[in-house]
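Hi R.,

Here's the chain you asked about this morning:
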Amino acid sequence: MMSDRTNILIVDDLPDKQLVYQSILEELGQNLVTAQSGAEALKQVLRQEFAVILLDVNMPGMDGFETAALIRKRKKSAHTPIIFVTAFADDFHIAQGYAHGAVDFIPSPVVPDVLRSKVRVFVELFRMTQQVKQQAKERLALQEERLKRTAAEDTNRRLAFLARASGVLGRSLDAVATARDLARLPLPFLADASVVMLAAGAEPALVIQAQVDGSGESLLEEAVSPDVLPAHLADRIERVLATGVTEAYDPLHPEANVPPTVGIWPLMARGKPIAALALLTGPSGRSCGAAEVAMAETLASRGAIALDNARFHFDLQEADRRKDDFLAMLAHELRNPLGPIRNAVHVLQLAGPDNPTLTQAREMIDRQVTHMARLVDDLLDATRIARGKILVRKEGCDLRQIVVQTAEDYRSVFEASGIHFAVEAGEQPVWIQGDPTRLAQLIGNLLHNAHKFTDPEGRVKVSLSVDDTEQAARLTIQDTGIGIDRAVLARLFEVFTQADRSLDRSRGGLGLGLALVKGLVEMHGGNVRAASAGAGQGAEFTVTLPLSGTATAQAVAGADDQLNGKACRVLVIEDNRDAAESVRMLLALAGHEVQTAHTGQAGLETAHRFRPQVVLCDIGLPGGMNGYQVCRALREDPALASTYVIALTGYGRDEDQRQSHEAGFDLHLTKPVDYDVLRRAMATSRRH
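And here is the predicted structure, written out as tokens:
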């Protein structure tokens, strides 16, 4: 007798998460078996059979992918469905998971209804398979040895077919491609012809027909209307889609020219039919027994899962596209006010009095605007952030200056907390190839970390030195804080690692800061390490970065000296009046003759009258003519075709830059633009 309860294996190294999954799946009424490691999971798989394995990807020691590979190597568990649970559901991890035999991915934190629904499907598939096996065993017990061998061979073919079906249906996340595979799969094993009809939604219903030709190849026909089918068959399929009820074997339908059917099955997902599968008999005159019908039902169930996964993937892609559009618009809206702020800082720098306090304030504002601008850039590529792949823009820079400036920005924070703060950076520049903003960010993260874990009256010391032997710069940040436990130290730079595990978590954060530090240091070709003698003994973080020498910096300085040249006539087309006026003031102080316009049409009219040598044009302009159209109009006018046109915009995606190039812009600058970058752009325009 087959047990009413099937086994479900939950593999996760965190007891809290196991408890959550058990509470979610408890209502399924199945045996829930838990394992806290890959090795323990393998032992459980050897002891008993499971309908489905819920497997965490990120586990210490043997991770989920390695565990899955070993499970697949065992004959007993080679086809056990594995559902990966992970917080990193990007294309790379999904592809790696399917390569290791996954049938599905569920992002963490899980949605209870989704988890229950997907696990329930595999439990039902398992019970159905077990039922087929049980029926085969009962028949084998009643037949002679020859019939036993035949039945065993048939069973093996069925299992091989189901295994192949799982592989084929899991290879694509495109709904139409999956439907085509589903139409081909049962031919000629279960039927002579098949029909898959996808339920109509916003688009017309898609009908895919398959039949076997004389050479054994399956031929496909597609249509967007059920009218291509015989009326009786179309009516039955549409009835199954409407009711969600299977229509059984119909060997001898009286209507002429209507092939008999093995059956018509609804493909259910989330309680609704999303497609229907009809299997038809033909010239072969095949008979369809309970085993064939059961296999067809299993195929339909697996097809439903595959189509639902494809639909879910499409929904995720669509949501991701909408997210990207939203982030692009958000970044544009955030960049617009940053532009005038940065321009005003440079205006104050050029026109303001030489007051040390004002100079310090301007420099602080400029650095913080730079940080904000780069954070806005990160919004444009959420996938890149999720993968920890933040781009760096390297240039020759003085690490000593960055360390001193960043330390001074944090000095007031340490003093307000009663922490003694000291900086030893020497007097000579330390030249490296790096991204100044990202270097300041990683130094700031380390200083923030030292402040967070150091009590009042403690000490924090920043030291910068040069190792001539290794040709490397070494930055050390020491504190007398609470120290780092040895167990935490080994995983300190991993994502979500928390040094503060107290109940109030007064010192804890998100566990991302040090992981980001490690990533940024490695992107600069360096390394970072942490050391601590233990609890209460303080901590020391050491960042090592390769030197680049002074030649690059001297070359940059020499290039800057060459940027001074004759003034230009410049037209600024910008609907944000503060942005337009701040750019005008900045360029006017540099000696350029500047005029402004606030719509695309007004910009063209001013260009015809003013004859500018350089045009700075926003992309998102009001009045029916955007920046792309303005640039195309300038290029089409012989009198203005050679004008150097720069896109000055809040849109900064690769797609936006490509569109700027196609429209005829010479250069694409993203707001807020650094004054040195703008000066170089103006110098470039004078050389054309």
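One quick note: Residues 566 and 591 are 8 Å apart (CA to CA).

Cheers,
M.
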